[in-house]
Amino acid sequence: MTAHRIPLSELESGIPFEQRHIGPDGGAQAKMLAHVGYGSLDELTAAAVPDTIKSVEALRLPAGRTEAAVLAELRDLADRNQVLAPMIGLGYYGTFTPPVILRNVMENPAWYTAYTPYQPEISQGRLEALLNFQTVVADLTGLPTSGASLLDEGTAAAEAMSLARRVGKVKQGVFLVDADCFPQTIAVIQTRAEPTGVEVVVADLTDGIPDEVAERGVFGVLLQYPGASGAVRDLKPVIERAHELGAIVTVSADLLALTLLTSPGELGADIAVGTTQRFGVPMAFGGPHAGYMAVREKFARSLPGRLVGVSVDADGNKAYRLALQTREQHIRREKATSNICTAQVLLAVMAGMYAVYHGPDGLAQIARRTHRYAAILAEGLRAGGVEVVHGGYFDTVTVRVPGRAAEVAAAARAAGVNLWERDADLLGVSCDETTGREQLAAVWSAFGVTGDIEALDAAAPDALPAGLLREDTYLAHPVFHQHRSETAMLRYLRRLSDRDYALDRGMIPLGSCTMKLNATTEMEPVTWPEFAGLHPFAPAEQAEGYLTLIHQLEDQLAEVTGYDKVSIQPNAGSQGELAGLLAVRAYHRANGDTQRTVCLIPSSAHGTNAASAVMAGMKVVVVKTRDDGDVDVEDLHAKIDQHRAELAVLMVTYPSTHGVFEENITDICATVHEAGGQVYVDGANLNALVGLAKPGKFGADVSHLNLHKTFCIPHGGGGPGVGPVAVRAHLAPYLPNHPLQPTAGPATGVGPISAAPWGSAGILPISWAYVRLMGGGGLRRATQVAVLGANYVAKRLEPHYPVLYTGPNGLVAHECIIDLRPLTKETGVSVDDIAKRLIDYGFHAPTMSFPVAGTLMIEPTESEDLAELDRFCEAMIAIRREVDKVGSGQWPVEDNPLRNAPHTAASLGGEWNRPYSRDEAVFPAGVSAADKYWPPVRRIDGAFGDRNLVCSCPPLDEYDA
């Protein structure tokens, strides 16, 4: 028998990556299509997608490449970056990520493929890790309540401004910012303040609050500790004076410095904010990093973002959960004071574990070493006749060299070190965990001096003010003392990850959240030092590879969406929304239409839409939604007529939040444009459009995209995310920009949305690689299979649960909503009962009660293969049979496997007096004992946790109570 000859060209092409990314193969797709009633993917999508929005041309993207080829391209881009010693400072520092944390958290899919812990019973590991993070922040800042991370230091400070305005006694007046705050923080605050009418005053507060400012009224004050210049000064007098004026005081503090310095809480601060980047999280050209906020106890219930608390489960055991979930401001919609709806969970876990691994003594040692290098550096400069500006500092030395700053900075770069060139006369030099003797020698050489490190070490005194040395203890909880060896740390990380349910374990069918494959090839370059080690304010010529990748990705996203320009600066979807609305606002103002402030939003829209509109200084007017889930066009016309002269923008999600392709979207866009408004299409559901339709071509003016949904950046347990904003040409002049990197945006832009010029640049290689691997054709097929998967699930479940909304030809888009309300009314079984029972079957629940209470929204994505889709459908069908047993009276409403779910391994022991068997409890239909996922706790009592708020590591004796 002669072997079949295959041409070399075919063999060289390798296996297309889309076959690795898309779960159902050709045979499975054929079976699914047959079940749905169509002969091909093209036939299905032709029936599902309205003709009015379809793209007629293929995506103008290169063909997909193999994993090896794409990694080689990324390696070439990485090699075009120059990673110099990062002595710029300004809130970004070199740090050493312990390999046990790098490998077992950052590079571990058990951590990076998890979702926001809205189902706490299957998120106990993540929640414990976040509680550790909160404890670190609370202990080091000296304030009792810390959140579970914010986006970065700049946005955390902006959130503190809003919080101060909300909870303080002074309702008018200005927000006063010390001139020694980081410049990017000041800029973000100014961006956020202007649309809401807050006046920001920047002043030198070294000698106190100026009388002329105090006379105007001050509702809040922001101080930097240590200052951007490196200066460490006693903030108590300024804080006391601010309190006399009725102001709320925020201190933006360096956590590493706080291991040695008196805490902001002890100094009298009401709020502390900052970043945890230098706790083992690479700079990554600006992010992602976990920002933090801690507050006095009386402000705990006003914190923006998330708070992990301690509650109890059904057996009375301690259990963790997101406390006070309504504090996620987007739930308040137009009454919101923040649009925060995500966090930087993966990075917060890393920072918290860095503290767990090093403990208080190890952190203090790192801080002392960092400070010692700074002190020796300064002593060497002084010995050489160079002026060191401040006598008290932690890690940053400001040096005066009249007229020579550029020359010295250039000499330092030539020697492999980046400095902060403040102006023609001043330079900033920052030491960090990675600073070594060779960096000191290079800096001295750049200044034209030499130094003997050993001699200078003997001569140089410490430069921390004696009156500000920390005297209290911190991180006393056992978790910060038990994991010093790598063995212990490795097992702790494994123990926590085993308690969780992530995408590496099984399907997470969350509607509107698009939990798809985050391929290892896409993830691998993120930790390469050429990408991870670059400072965000390094000169642009040192970031050639990064900037090439960024601009290519922006162009790719513009092609996919049909827009003209994209900015990737926003580091969350909510921030992309804000950036888009600020662009619309600026456009109207540039045209003299300052009265255009009304934002129309359908009642079914994501809550962040309304929250972002409020933050952009707009008035929200809600448009009704029809019974079939579509926008009520009649009510839309009425609202447009009512607000025609004031109409700024319509925000609409497409496909709709109800999971259908609305057929009248182009008419809606045209109607808004005719009235002088702009159209914002929320990109949360873009996974149903890529390759099939382009919002920028069917009538939209602006969208934000969720790279952590459609373009494969991992959710990481609730973060990181990236929310690029895409606009048509007339809005491009109003995209975000940045004061420290002129090339990051247009000079006419609205200011920075994020602290770093290109936001969370460190994870952009993921999405770049995804697009490059898939190519235009692969992206289109991924969308088609996502639509196929959703319709397959809908058709399989329809005989058992009503599908609430359908679009053209009775089809759904990329997700479907099943209605449990009739079952609840008939049997008493709630949506919570079904969601928790799915845990016993080995699944994460779909999205609960959004956008309609009492429903489940299911999104299978293209990554799940047919076997997993069938396993999920069979579990849902089996649960329906269990519901029928409750309805028939075979099982009591208050004592059945659904109401008591989830069941833990402990359920197998002890007495059993349930009306159903142990096997029915823990091994329901189709669940294998060998592959069983065991939840660590039973159903958690949310109300108990909200009444008894515990948001840092409780003493161990509480666990015995």
From TrEMBL:
Domain annotation Glycine cleavage system P-protein N-terminal: ranges: 19-447, 455-736
Reported cofactor(s): pyridoxal 5'-phosphate
GO molecular function per UniProt: glycine dehydrogenase (decarboxylating) activity
Highest taxon above the source species: Bacteria
Reactions mediated catalytically: N(6)-[(R)-lipoyl]-L-lysyl-[glycine-cleavage complex H protein] + glycine + H(+) = N(6)-[(R)-S(8)-aminomethyldihydrolipoyl]-L-lysyl-[glycine-cleavage complex H protein] + CO2
EC number annotated for this UniProt entry: 1.4.4.2
Class of this enzyme: oxidoreductase
Keyword Cytoplasm: no
SUPFAM superfamilies referenced in this protein's UniProt entry, alphabetically: PLP-dependent transferases (SSF53383)
Modified residues (N6-(pyridoxal phosphate)lysine): K709
InterPro entries: GcvP, GDC-P_C, GDC-P_N, GDC_P, PyrdxlP-dep_Trfase, PyrdxlP-dep_Trfase_major, PyrdxlP-dep_Trfase_small
Domain Glycine dehydrogenase C-terminal span(s) in chain numbering: 782-903
Gene3D superfamilies: Aspartate Aminotransferase, domain 1, Type I PLP-dependent aspartate aminotransferase-like (Major domain)
Residues in the signal sequence: none
Record keywords, A-Z: Oxidoreductase, Pyridoxal phosphate
Function: The glycine cleavage system catalyzes the degradation of glycine. The P protein binds the alpha-amino group of glycine through its pyridoxal phosphate cofactor; CO(2) is released and the remaining methylamine moiety is then transferred to the lipoamide cofactor of the H protein.
Family: Belongs to the GcvP family.
HAMAP family reported for this sequence: GcvP
Description of how the protein assembles with itself and partners: The glycine cleavage system is composed of four proteins: P, T, L and H.
Protein name as it appears in the record: Glycine dehydrogenase (decarboxylating)
Species: Streptomyces fildesensis
Gene name tied to this protein: gcvP
